[in-house]
Amino acid sequence: MLPPRLQVEQLTFRYDERKQENTLENVSFTVQKGEWLAVVGHNGSGKSTLARLLVGLLTPNEGSVHINGIKLDEDSKWKLRSQIGLIFQNPENQFIGTTVKDDVAFALENMNMAYDEMKVRVEQALEMVGLEDFAEYDPSRLSGGQKQRVAIAGLLALNPSILILDEAMVMLDPKSRKELMETLSNLKTNNHITIISITHDMNEAQAADRILMLSSGQILHDGEPAEVFQKEPTLDVPFAEQLRRELENRGSKVPDGYMTEDEMVRWLCR
Ligand SMILES: Nc1ncnc2c1ncn2[C@@H]1O[C@H](COP(=O)(O)OP(=O)(O)O)[C@@H](O)[C@H]1O
Ligand SMILES: [Mg+2]
């Protein structure tokens, strides 16, 4: 059997060595090939710190991260870096190229890849995010969602097995968000890429296979979205669940469990 794409064991980290307080404490979870994990939690709960540890930008005080069975450490991190990509909130800060295709090619150029192979990789990456017709565009003139997709293509060109998005949809309008969600769903389904999306948007979290909730640097919940929404009253849950709770509070006999919007519509129209 193949090792899990990502295995996090007893991860503990603190920014300040002199303090006892850990920013992350004993965090353990695994993510499989083609799985989509949403990471949620209030501000300061340690989500971005976790993302930085997963890509080797920070080094844990205790515990370990394995990517495709290889332990992330000082020696392996340069090699593993192409296997796990991180996308941030603001797409503007991530551009280097003057055309979309140059931008996507940037990391490959740095690796001294042969031109022919580079050309194929860039075309494939743009196709994977649905931007094959935008290769010659100036990236600064694209919509927010398209910019994030260019940034994703830049990572995809490196053939990663894991993509991490740290609140990557915050600056996007609803239409761009929807496009980006579709792109992620296609990458998961068609290319079996593992996706870890850090988010405050419970509609985004709902699209994931699983939700991991952090609280003060520890895992509070790890389960399917429906399960976590039901267990955790402090989450700003999707509309259908808000409605279900409201109806329940007013004494209506609603189903116990969490429902998706479609299920809620079917139940209301029954
Ligand atoms: N570079 C840093 N140096 C010191 N403390 C930090 C640094 N970055 C984050 N922190 C602290 O670590 C905690 C977790 O932060 P972070 O991982 O950014 O949380 P989140 O992404 O969930 O909002 C917070 O208390 C934050 O103030
Ligand atoms: Mg953060």
TrEMBL record:
<dbReference type="Pfam" id="PF00005">
    <property type="entry name" value="ABC_tran"/>
</dbReference>
<dbReference type="GO" id="GO:0043190">
    <property type="term" value="C:ATP-binding cassette (ABC) transporter complex"/>
</dbReference>
<dbReference type="GO" id="GO:0042626">
    <property type="term" value="F:ATPase-coupled transmembrane transporter activity"/>
</dbReference>
<dbReference type="InterPro" id="IPR030947">
    <property type="entry name" value="EcfA_1"/>
</dbReference>
<keyword id="KW-0472">Membrane</keyword>
<dbReference type="InterPro" id="IPR027417">
    <property type="entry name" value="P-loop_NTPase"/>
</dbReference>
<dbReference type="InterPro" id="IPR017871">
    <property type="entry name" value="ABC_transporter-like_CS"/>
</dbReference>
<feature type="domain" description="ABC transporter">
    <location>
        <begin position="6"/>
        <end position="241"/>
    </location>
</feature>
<keyword id="KW-0547">Nucleotide-binding</keyword>
<dbReference type="InterPro" id="IPR050095">
    <property type="entry name" value="ECF_ABC_transporter_ATP-bd"/>
</dbReference>
<dbReference type="InterPro" id="IPR003593">
    <property type="entry name" value="AAA+_ATPase"/>
</dbReference>
<keyword id="KW-0813">Transport</keyword>
<dbReference type="GO" id="GO:0015087">
    <property type="term" value="F:cobalt ion transmembrane transporter activity"/>
</dbReference>
<protein>
    <submittedName>
        <fullName>Energy-coupling factor transporter ATPase</fullName>
    </submittedName>
</protein>
<dbReference type="GO" id="GO:0005524">
    <property type="term" value="F:ATP binding"/>
</dbReference>
<keyword id="KW-0067">ATP-binding</keyword>
<comment type="similarity">
    <text>Belongs to the ABC transporter superfamily.</text>
</comment>
<dbReference type="GO" id="GO:0016887">
    <property type="term" value="F:ATP hydrolysis activity"/>
</dbReference>
<dbReference type="InterPro" id="IPR015856">
    <property type="entry name" value="ABC_transpr_CbiO/EcfA_su"/>
</dbReference>
<dbReference type="InterPro" id="IPR003439">
    <property type="entry name" value="ABC_transporter-like_ATP-bd"/>
</dbReference>
<keyword id="KW-1003">Cell membrane</keyword>
<keyword id="KW-1278">Translocase</keyword>
